[in-house]
Amino acid sequence: MNKKRKAFGSLLLASMLTLSMLSGCGKSNTAEPSSASPSEKASAPATESASTEASTLSGKVVFWSMWSNAEPQAKVIDEAIADFKAANPAVEVEIKYNGRDINKLIKPALESGQQIDIFEQDPSAALANLKDHVLKLDDLLAEQAIGDDGKSVKDSIIPSLIEWVKSLSGPAGLEEGYYAIPQQPYAVLFFYNKELFNKAGITEVPTSWEQFLAACESLKQAGIEPITFDDAYRSLFSGGYLASAMGSDWTDSLVKDKTGEMWKDPIVLQFAKDIQNLHEKGYFSKKIAGNKYPAGQQDLAIGKVAMYLNGSWLPNEVAETAGPNFQWGSFQFPTVPNGNDKGGQQGLTFGAQGLLLNKKSKNVPAAFELVKYLVSKKTQAAMGTQAVAIPATVDTKWPAPLEEAAIAFNNAKVNLPWGFGMENAGDFSSGTVFPVFMELATGKINADQYVAKMVTEAKKFYSGK
């Protein structure tokens, strides 16, 4: 996926320990897809049993997907639709694989009254931008899940995910409730090449900044470039550091501070000195100055660099380049010292794509029955094995490249926004915060110059507001 993940509100993850549990795409999460493909009718033999009620369903259901028909997720969806069709032969299913173009196509299509019964989107974006079109699902979620030992649909989904979706309703101006069913979960972590770590003699993943620096030095001494990123994900590294120290509420306040005075906080100078040190020590890839997405992740996949802070969709995006024998590992952003006790590894950026129903759908029963097949344990397990995606259902095996991500989920208690809050200032973030960070990370300015420039630029930007 590329960089444009939306921000997510804070959410306690107490229920996350029920995970055996919780990868995406794009601005949202897999390699940038192709444009919309023609609508296709799905049919194939079934292997999943349907409920008694489902056998009476009829009519037509139109599903707009966020995947392109060349992506592995599409194959899994086709299989789920085939199972649904076999159990519900009187229902016609039309699937349109839009790719991420759905983000610009869905609103005008819904507003024009085009038949769309089910669609996929980032739930936070959908509830904010399409709140007049989404159906409240609370009653439907009580229906029995497909192939999950008598659980309701709600209870079959990882608790933290389904409750996160509910938490989005209030800020969107909707009556509290569930308006999306999460699937294709993701989290932001450092992904690393275990083979290179082993070559450098690193036996444990770093959890503190001191350990992180030691790992970088070991990699450098072994002739391995430690860290890379590209233009699509540079916000994650700067935001990850400051949020690890101070929490994402603080970073949100930092980038929105109209006086510029917050940039004088000692933690900002510490951050700047540590980034300067990473550059001067040669821990950053020499290519970061010119890296355009997906250049950085390709360097990780071919073994030229050891670590990349990215989303859990990464192993799937680079699977063809990395090959089946790539040894994936992951760990959370290390804990930064001298913070305010609101950061550390209690926070994690996570979320999911979502399945939503059009509240003007004329065939809600059949549409929701299809959704049940899409989030069945069988389909979610296939997403793990075929698309290297985290399954959204409880007690479902995670794909091997993402197994270590479960450790981060078990540690986390707070849901952090995309970019750890550093993207929350719109044009100031994109036009000033990240370009000036790149000047620091590439040695064009030093730490003191960075602080002075950010104070000045913040005052200048907000003086016109």
TrEMBL record:
Residues 1-24 form the signal peptide. Residues 28-51 are annotated as: Disordered. Keywords: Signal. PROSITE patterns: PROKAR_LIPOPROTEIN (PS51257). Residues 30-51 have a biased composition (Low complexity). This is ABC transporter substrate-binding protein. It comes from Cohnella abietis. The lineage of its organism: Bacteria, Bacillati, Bacillota, Bacilli, Bacillales.
